[in-house]
Design goal:
2 copies of one chain form a homodimer. Chain A is globular. Chain A is α/β, with parallel strands linked by helices. An 8-stranded mixed beta sheet of chain A has the order 9-10-11-8-12-13-14-15, with helices on one face. Chain A folds into 2 domains: 139 residues, 3-Layer(aba) Sandwich (Rossmann fold); 150 residues, Dihydrodipicolinate Reductase, domain 2, CATH 3.30.360.10. The longest helix of chain A has 17 residues. Helices cover 34% and strands 24% of the residues of chain A. In chain A, helix 1 packs across helix 9. Chains A and B meet through strand 8, strand 9, strand 10, strand 11 and strand 12 of A and strand 8, strand 9, strand 10, strand 11 and strand 12 of B.
Chain lengths: 348, 348
């Protein structure tokens, strides 16, 4: 453990506005997503960052200091023993999730892991069994499901506003600076790829609307020589329902998710994976807009949703359950194996 | 032939603004599309409506009078003999196109036929052979290709503005009043269906960008008991290129076509099948907008493009060639047969 001088911990005082009891979070990882998460934590009510775990002491210190935390560990097990956080958030490369999740669950401590939570069904079965055995909370970090605009869209669907949902169109197609952006850097060695790193969001939009597994999924993939650089997928369901889904690191498409029903449609955006807006457009053209701007990254919604679960003793988040994770994980695994993409974890 | 009192032909005087030589058109059919076409003709330079053919004398008279024409026939052959138009436009139910096209071509007169031009490959081979034999102009009425906004999009692609095109997303999904709107009314007896009546526009957008036949096309279809009420299709091409295409009579989706390339994307709308706008959005977010509003239906662009062809002696329209028609017709026929949709023409 490395202690940081409290004087440098500038951001800690103004938190804990709404509740008496703070939820004590530990963050594993110090990369881009971990930073975004920590910014969200500063906006969340009653969230306290009590420990940071980084394999690099220097990175850990810089990160912890930035977010008003004074405790850094280079060993996960030591952190768990000493800090005893209420929950651990894991934001490290895909292929490292599994062993970290197992270690935290084994200690009887709840886990939020970044997507994709694990690399294959065998690992998924193991973490699900361990969470059940230890009777602790576990969630794959599909933060998108927690945004107010997405919850509004879901309510509109549940209320029958668009009638029977018929089609979902969702694409997470971006062209990042590959040298600068983490998930993509991983390639095959870190179990990366467009489907798992960004496409998973599009699949989660379809699965939110059509909660079952697709009847069939036809997909085309462009490889970067290691993993999928882009893919396009038609998922079909019974009775003509369908989803057009894509993910890409080589092209930019309009990042609005469209959910079309018999009576109208819902548009989620401007970037559907962390939206501020849900728009309900009826077939006659009349419109209704839900708008909720937010400060920082928006991770606060996921954080607050989870804290509510912990307070209530719930073991899954209702916005993105472990069943949701299972359906999407199987769908991804079937697809990538059809493409011939094999990860380290598959031969372990 | 039925002559109408010239005094009722109010719209004829103000035409023929730009050229001396009028192109003398005959229109077969008096329905919704024929009306839209005639409105476009009133906006086109040097286009004259010289004859109307309708099986109903009363409908023919009403229609002709509305557009300043004083000659109505109830028999196509009689019209061809007597009126000798420069070109015949055919806007009757799908299943009637073939025999009308053959009759007009046999008389050595050019033809513009509404989409889908014919019902299957056998009919297509026959009309193509007849047009070649008689050495006359023939075009399937994919008017969308003639709009300035679509031509601008095509120029941008040809100039390399978006780099290599990678993805096309196009859906013609509407929910018309079925009792009031003609193509849909046809059902199986008139060789109708979402794929042929509206989806064909989406396929034509893909084929404009990727001129070859798709490598594969996966599609899901919802039947109305006779034909396809809606469909969703993933068309794949070599090297990961793909198109998300749909057509529907039971749901309304955002009617903008998106063409995504390596460097940027093009949005065609607001209703891509008769657009006023093409927008070029570079990957860095910079935008360039082409806008061309037009009076009436917009058929004037197709009409003027064809008149230019006739003047130059060309036998095909460069915006939508007979090869374009062949590729899309084969694609549609393969797809509908996979769905088990069989038309009258297939057993003739």
């Amino acid at each position: 453990m490395i202690m940081i001088d409290r004087k440098t911990a500038v951001n800690v005082e103004w938190k804990g506005r709404n509740r008496m009891k703070e939820t004590r979070w530990a963050i594993v990882g110090t990369g881009y997503i971990a930073n975004e998460f920590a910014k969200g934590m500063q906006e969340a009510a009653a969230a306290e960052l009590v420990a940071v775990v980084s394999r690099s002491e220097e990175n850990g210190k810089t990160f912890a200091q930035r977010y008003g935390c004074n405790t850094v560990y280079t060993e996960l097990a030591e952190m768990l023993r000493n800090a005893r956080p209420d929950i651990v958030y894991i934001a490290i490369p895909n292929d490292c999730h599994f062993s970290y999740i197992m270690t935290v669950l084994e200690a009887g401590i709840p886990v939020l892991s970044e997507k994709p939570m694990v690399d294959n069904r065998r690992q998924l079965d193991a973490v699900l069994a361990k969470a059940r055995e230890k009777d602790v909370f576990l969630m794959e970090g599909m933060w998108t499901r927690c945004f107010p605009a997405v919850r509004q869209a879901r309510s509109w669907i549940a209320e029958g506003k668009i009638g029977k949902p018929l089609t979902v169109k969702s694409g997470f197609d971006i062209k990042p600076d590959v040298s600068d952006w983490q998930p993509w850097k991983g390639g095959i060695s870190h179990a990366g790829g467009a489907l798992r790193d960004v496409g998973i969001y599009a699949l989660a939009m379809a699965q939110m609307v059509f909660p079952e597994s697709p009847k069939e999924a036809h997909a085309t993939m462009k490889s970067n020589g290691e993993v999928d650089e882009s893919f396009h997928m038609l998922a079909t369901y019974t009775d003509g329902r369908a989803a057009f889904l894509s993910g890409a690191f080589n092209q930019v498409s309009t990042p609005v998710t469209e959910i079309v029903g018999e009576l109208g449609r819902i548009l989620i955006g401007p970037e559907f994976w962390h939206p501020t807006t849900a728009e309900l457009v009826m077939n006659d053209g009349t419109r209704q807009t839900f708008e909720k701007a937010y400060p920082a990254s928006g991770f606060q919604y996921e954080i607050e949703a989870i804290q509510e679960c912990l307070e209530k003793g719930e073991k899954e988040c209702p916005y993105f359950t472990l069943t949701d994770t299972e359906i999407i994980a199987d769908w991804i695994e079937t697809t990538r194996k059809e493409w011939g993409i094999v990860y380290k974890a598959d031969s372990e």
